[in-house]
Each structure stands twice: as C-alpha cells, then as structure tokens.
Design a protein that fits this description.
Strand content: 5-15%
CATH topology of the largest domain: Rossmann fold
Number of strands: 5
Radius of gyration: 18 Å
CATH class of the largest domain: Alpha Beta
Largest sheet: 5 strands, parallel
Oligomer: single chain
Shape: globular
CATH superfamily of the largest domain: P-loop containing nucleotide triphosphate hydrolases
Order of helices and strands: EHEHHHHEEHHHEH
Helix content: 40-55%
Amino acid sequence: MASGDGRIPFIGLTGGIGAGKSEALAALERLGAATLSSDAVVHELLQSDEVRDRLVERFGPEVAPDGVVDRAAVARLVFSNSDERKWLEEELWPRVGRRIWDWRQSLEGRRPRPRAAVVEVPLLFEAGMEQAFDHTIAVVADERVRELRAAARGHAGLESRTSRQLSQEEKAQRADFVVVNDADIPALESKLSQLLANMGR
C-alpha cells in the first residue's frame, strides 16, 4: 500500500448522511490507516480564538456566549442564507485545508508507516477537493437504511440536510472506489480491507 513515489497514499472518503462514513473511517483506522475527520477539524477551528473573533465580528456576540462559539446558533444563521454560508466556508475551508496538509506531512515520519492517510470529507466533490487526493472512496447505502440511521441520530430527514450535497449516485460516479455499506460493521470492514489490498497491488 505505497504510492509510486514512496509517499503514504492520500485518500478522500465521502458519502451521504447515514451511509456510514464515520464507521468506514473507524474501520480503516483499525486496518492500519491514519485517519482524520474534516468535521472534527472544523469543530476544533470553531473553538479557536481566531475563528471565534471572526464570527463575532460578522454575526455579533450572541454567536459566542461566554466566549465559546455556539455551533447551533451559527448553523441557524448560515444554513438558509447562501451568502453567509459562502462567507463561512471561505473562512473555514482554507484553514481546514492547511490543517489537513500539516497532518498529512506529520505522518511521513511515523513508524510504523500507516497503510494510507484517509480524510473523511462529507462535501468532498461539492467543494472541489477531490484533486488533492490520490484516491477517493464513496460509501453508499440503500436510501431506506440511510433514513433509519439518520433518524436514529436525531436527524429529522435527509432532504433538507442534503440539499447542498450531490446525490449518492453522483458521488459514486465521481469516486475512484465505491463501498456499499448494506450489512454490519464487520462486513464493511471486510470490504474496506479488500479495497486496501487491491489498491496496494
């Protein structure tokens, strides 16, 4: 599982809500990959003084009561306003990109070397980030299964939450590899193990 120039293969992982991206990321880590969630990076950035101050400057102190960013308040302000969402993305995405790059560079000296460096990016194709990766993987699942998983996590429905996302069919068409997550976690891990092995050939 080494790229032709000796670098650790850099993989972008995506999929729709309820498809099982997080489970796939955890499985890949168990299989020897180094993993990072871009959502986790965003949450970390929202806790930084720099981003908090930019948000307060833009939206007012109510988005950071007691000096801590209220993510739900920010989401309410930007979710239905395309201009504000665009502003927030332009603030966050370059910072996310730098954090991912730094993380990737830090892996080169790790021993034992990871089989791959995998970043979970929900809006991978929508953000035009696929070119940054050596390979892309889309995790897909039956629509009914996705609805049930989303409901179990407290998401009222997929439609409003996925309006900005490509359909999972489109994600699958654009990805280098597609993993169907239609069974249990051991089955998902088995598919990902085979995928890593095939990539390494």
